[in-house]
Hints:
The chain has four domains: about 5-90, GMP Synthetase, Chain A, domain 3, CATH 3.30.300.180; about 100-260, 3-Layer(aba) Sandwich (Rossmann fold); about 265-335, Helicase, Ruva Protein, domain 3; about 345-435, Chromosomal Replication Initiator Protein Dnaa, Chain: A, CATH 1.10.1750.10. The chain contains 21 helices and eight strands. It is an alpha/beta fold. The strands form two sheets. The protein has a five-stranded parallel β-sheet with strand order 5-6-7-4-8, with helices on both faces. Strands 1-2-3 form a three-stranded mixed β-sheet.
Amino acid sequence: MDSFKDAWLIVSEYCRTKITDIAYKTWIARIKPISLDYENGKVYLLVPNDFHRQTLLRNYIPLLNEAFEAIFSSTFEFCFVTEEEQKKEEEETGVEVINSDYEYTFENFIVGSSNKFAHAASLAVAANPAGAYNPLFLYGNSGLGKTHLLYAIGNDIKKANPDMKIIYVKGDDFTNELIEAIRQNTTMEFRHKYRQADVLLVDDVQFIGGREATQEEFFHTFNTLFEGKKQIVLTSDRPPKDINVLEERLRSRFEWGLLADVQPPDMETRIAIIKRKAEHLDLPLSNEVAEFIAQKLKNNIRQLEGTVKKLKARFMLNNEKPTILIVSEVISDILNNNVSPEHTIEKIVEEVARTFGVTPDDITSQKSRKASINHPRHIAIYISRELTTLTMEQIGEKFGGKHYSTIVYTVQQMEKKMQTDSKLKETVQDIMKNIRGDR
């Protein structure tokens, strides 16, 4: 396999079979692959923080060695990089690392009737940055290949112009960076990072909507880059006109260039995607099995490729060749994941707090009664009702011991407000999408 991401999937699946589910989800599942240096025998892995790194070093090196030896017939030195360290390196170099592996190139992007216009537009931008379409705005539902095209543009531009400064950022990460810059009084450095870019790639730009300071900052960043003839590429789950919480001045600018939608792939394209992925992973896959997968999974390319990856993992670990029966088990697991899973109050509160720039304690504490806290608290309560199976009494306990009648009233008021306040409704929907991971 050429992609370390694919290899890591198999390694992590191996680890899952050796430890408890809680241990796996807490320590292994949160690791992200960076790169594998065969020549020097080193594996680079991204971890959330230093505590996570130290725990892995103390307790999980033997397991990781066992997994790598089982998969690669060799052991490696593990180099853990924290998210903070990676961010610092990117800020110091001024360059966001563009992923150039199998996952994000034009060569492996399967073109069909559903995406050929977006693909052609992306190729044109990559061949002539700021000279073809600027900005290029790609939109469509989650899992259809928008991020693939975004990275492919960056990779192609980087190959042809190695000195160009290319920055990739997610819409919500742009907001988080701005909040941190304001907190640390480093807004000038923040502005310099983004406004000195030659190419700015923004994924899920809809998440800057409804955030006044973020939109103000992004407006000036957009103007600076556009006037400087720098390329801007944006993706969203909807066209600009449907991002109701977006300021009109930004909406109009997003429409200055070219809008290209990406639709779910047809049957032939889905089969081609499955076969290409299986070929890349060197996985024997019959036409019958490929067609079965394509018939079951119709709206999400990530699910198609994820199915093939899981089949490869089972083939590597248990020597199970893909059959309709085995595929049915894997498909069942994926289809079940389409149903909203149980979410914890803690996760909901954390996401709401992040969105509004407050702390989780502010939201759940009885002591804080400020109006600026009441709004996110009411949203958190409403979302808790929507995404969990907890009773009103149980939700009340999680929010400082509030009486169930208070929770009922809060939910009712939120429902009424959302009927007339489209900005509030879209903010709530975007927060819920973030929590569910529908990106």
